[in-house]
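Here is one chain, start to finish.
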Amino acid sequence: MENYRFPSDSKIVSTDQVLINDLNNYNTLFGGVLMKKIDNNATLSARRHARVKECVTASTDSVEFLYPITQSDSVCIESYVVYTGEKSMEIFCKVISEDMITAERKIAAVAFLTFV
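Its structure:
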């Protein structure tokens, strides 16, 4: 019998605050800082799916920065496996910023990463 897994089985959700050291000269979150958070989240989704000790990022297929993230925002990242091959898997990540003062939430970025 096949051992099926659903995308929801690999879902990881993490929320973090934006600190002053994470900001660039425009007072928005550095893209590289966000990419690190995305990669960390995607790694956990890949490991949860494969149930292995380690997974390695083979490529960041795409990252689309849709909306700037500021210091008054929190950053919520959702990731899950959307495709598996014999030796690799693709992870989708959605970044949601929430203004902690007004409670306004926006999709700030989306990304696809491949893991082996």
